[in-house]
């Protein structure tokens, strides 16, 4: 049986494995929300909720509608209840995925049908802010900047204006099987050395796997060594750093892994395959996000989580997503909406969110809480996040994903990295220029779809 054939068989086995997990979850009385780390035990924190230190007061007769995802409901219901108890403002929640909110908001906002407070990530912020759909975080701007990680504040800002009230972070890190490797490697050089003793391609046994064909997951091999998407902290689309000297250095390490660590073609690297292999104890280290924690637990893997090993002598830098509350510019009760957004993003609120859903905090004091620091999984994701680059919030970021995904495939499969990156950057510039000419069109081009 060829290696490629066996990988295809694994893909089919993954479907069976996934179905089994779904059936198991259906028989359970409780399950963890997708995309969340493991929640703490209920009542683990001594939380204090009280009126905010501000002169801002809700409008007479105010009531609010909040949009949030299904996974966040346990937290949102509890925080709405506390807000109503303190401020006397009724708050209702409508389930809506964070990726779907801006599109619906563009239509429902002017019609007066949209939520007063929405939740989304920074890759949609530029579109919302430039269209005047949301209000700046002005009344609580200073305290938000002081309390949250700089990466989170940057992600919630557009054109040097803070709009969001950060809630939680999402990025990826390295899962490792403790039965196969007791201590996670600190550098890629250590990964290479381990691979020499562990790899057995004929048996689909690999030391280290990551989604090499996808730029989102391969970004550490550019960002860690000096590459970047856009200059000025992701705000200057005229300055593209995806083919600079640092990016080329990191791509040298990236390309070398094909020979030294993961000797398979880009076409045979797929998330479902590596998830199956890690679940079966075939892969020692697997770079992915927190959304697979429960999958690995149900598979019985004795795993830990650690930051991705250093690349080219530099700490690994991932891309991160920050979800924040945003206040509608169409809200009839902007004061109440601002108060809720602030109230639902404080230290106590983020600890409650972690307790009920496992959300990784953006609030510095919440993240430093002893219970979270002692949680190996959450603290590892937070550590990786603290050294991450937030995906740019400007609309031009939509033009990078398709060209850079294609570039990762070509470089992994042996093409000249400088030639490939130069071509990808040219394609990005051309797409940005074309999109600028078509900016009056309501629909985004296919190439501008975000991976988030």
From TrEMBL:
Main localization category: membrane
UniProt key word Signal: yes
Keyword Signal (UniProt): yes
The organism's place on the tree of life at top rank: Bacteria
Segments traversing the membrane: none
Coiled coil: none
UniProt signal peptide: 1-30
Alphabetical list of PROSITE patterns matching this protein: PROKAR_LIPOPROTEIN (PS51257)
The entry's keywords: Cell membrane, Lipoprotein, Membrane, Signal, Sugar transport, Transport
Subcellular locations according to the entry: Cell membrane
SUPFAM superfamilies: Periplasmic binding protein-like II
Pfam families assigned to the protein according to its UniProt record, in alphabetical order: SBP_bac_8
Membrane topology: Lipid-anchor
Gene3D superfamilies (alphabetical): Periplasmic binding protein-like II (3.40.190.10)
Similarity annotation: Belongs to the bacterial solute-binding protein 1 family.
Record protein name field: Maltodextrin-binding protein
